[in-house]
Structures are given as C-alpha cells and as structure tokens.
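Format notes (please read before filing issues)

Several people have asked whether sequences and structure tokens are stored in separate files. They are not. Every record keeps both together, in the order shown below: the sequence lines, then the token lines. Line labels are part of the format and must not be stripped during preprocessing.
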Amino acid sequence: MKTIFFAGTALAVLAAAPASAQPGSDDRSAQPQTRSAVQAQVQARFARADSNRDGFVTQDEVRARAQARRADRREQRFEQLDANNDGSISRSEFEAPRAVRGDRGERRAMRAERRGQRFAHRGGRGGGMMARFGARAFAAMDLDRDGRVAFAEAQRAAFQRFDRIDSNRDGTISLDERQAARAARQERRQDRREDRQDD
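Then the structure lines:
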C-alpha cells in the first residue's frame, strides 16, 4: 500500500474549448490559429470527454474525467517523489525536490497559491466556456436544455469564441488579434473591479 505525506493537486479540468484560441494560454498562442484547427481540437477533446460514446457529454462524464486526471497526476507525483520505489515517501524524499527546484520552485508554488486564492475568491467556480465546464458554462452550451452537450453545441461555443477574437473575419486568429482580445478582456475585468469598488 502506498503511503504519502502531502495532499493537494492542481484542479484538472476538461478543456474542450481550444486552448490555442485563448490568448496567452501557452506557446501555441504565438502561432496563427485557423477555424479548422479549432474544430479538430474540439472534436478530439469532445471524443475524450464522451466516455460512453453516446454522442453527448454530461456533467457526470466531465466530473469523472477530472477525477481520473487528478488521480493520474497524484500517481505521477508520487512516483516522482518515491525515489527508492518502496511504496512510501520519506521526509527526505519529499524535501529533496525543493532543494533541486530552488527559487524557481518557490515562484511556482507562489503562483499556484495565488491561483488557488483567486479560485476560492470566486467561490470555487471556474470561468470560461467549456474550458471549465462549470454549471453556468454548461447551461450556456446546452442550447436545447436536455442536460447534455452535443458536439454541435460544443463546437458552436468554441466557434463563437473564435469569431469574437477573429476581428477581421479571415478565418485565422493572428497574434495581433490575440493580444487585442487579451487587452479587451483585461479592460473588462478592470471595469468590473472598479464597479465593485464603487458599490
């Protein structure tokens, strides 16, 4: 039986809306993104989420997938820390990565803590469309209100996001369009913060 002396992992969520259509999400955000690539990404993620292969994704399937991903990450983390493969993690094994990570590890931990604080501040609710599959986002995609999201519904949500960013309507999101969308989003957030402070 495996014994572990730490708890907590990053929240693993289904990202059915293409990460590359979300400005600044990763290195792919520097590359142009086409509408056809978005469709392919949504299709691949939807297929992974539709565990019973009935052509629909339910919140139960999303939760089950998230739990499985969390379990996989915990298992990987355990295996990384269990240097002698004895099925338990000693204090020295647990503390060894800290010495190797140094300042970089501390910065990463601080960023993770800030993300957790923002998540808690929102009452544990994630934002975004299908990226976090919160109840409100799920309802927004579930156009026929049958409690399930079909591929066409998921694709429509992703295309709506794509079309908002693709300001010149040429079927490709450029780096400039990503940056403009990011700036507009940050401005909206700032406006909301100021509105809350005024109340």
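For reference, the curators noted about this record: The first strand starts at residue 33 and ends at 34. Helices lie at 35-49, 59-81, 91-121, 135-141, 151-165, 175-198.
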